[in-house]
């Protein structure tokens, strides 16, 4: 991603990646890089890359397909499962005879 003429990389991502994963990973490979990391919401990151404001966006995508504008490509970096713990009497799981998987959209109206 870093060219020979420019050592600048503008990356947009969410907080966890921006703080914990990205800086050590890039500094290890390119210690002289001019790295600009911006915290963005995943939906914003795609638009910012498409408009040229960012060079790269690392986004989260759970349970839906990414919609990319022409000229952009997505590559999966990690698969990070989400674990949710709820009390037995929570409305979303009340009445289930045995535990089963939930979908994020089942929690849309939950605080």
Explain how this protein is built.
The mean pLDDT is 78. 9% of the residues are buried. The chain is of the alpha/beta class. It is built from 2 helices and 3 strands. The protein has a domain at 1-76: Periplasmic binding protein-like II (D-Maltodextrin-Binding Protein, domain 2). It has a 3-stranded parallel beta sheet with strand order 2-1-3, with helices on both faces. Residues 4-96 form the LysR substrate-binding domain.
Helix content: 10-25%
Mean pLDDT: 78
Strand content: 5-15%
The CATH topology of the domain at 1-76, please?
A: D-Maltodextrin-Binding Protein, domain 2
CATH uppermost class of the domain at 1-76: Alpha Beta
Strand segment tally? 3
Helix and strand succession? EHEHE
Major sheet summary line? 3 strands, parallel
Radius of gyration of CA atoms, rounded to a whole number: 18 Å
Task: Give the low-confidence spans.
Answer: none
Structural class: alpha/beta
CATH architecture grouping of the domain at 1-76:
3-Layer(aba) Sandwich
> How do the strands of the widest beta sheet line up side by side?
2-1-3
The total of helices stands at 2
What is the CA-CA span between the terminal residues? 40 Å
Short description:
Belongs to the LysR transcriptional regulatory family. With 111 residues, the protein is of the alpha/beta class.
């Amino acid at each position: 991603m870093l060219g020979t003429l420019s050592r600048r990389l503008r990356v947009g991502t969410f907080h966890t990646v921006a703080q914990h994963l990205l800086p050590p990973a890039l500094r290890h490979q390119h210690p002289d890089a001019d790295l600009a990391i911006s915290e963005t919401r995943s939906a914003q990151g795609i638009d910012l890359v498409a408009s040229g404001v960012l060079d790269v966006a690392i986004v989260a995508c759970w349970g839906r397909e990414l919609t990319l504008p022409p000229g952009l490509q997505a590559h999966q970096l990690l698969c990070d499962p989400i674990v949710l713990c709820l009390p037995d009497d929570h409305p979303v799981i009340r009445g289930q005879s045995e535990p089963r998987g939930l979908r994020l959209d089942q929690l849309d109206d939950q605080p």
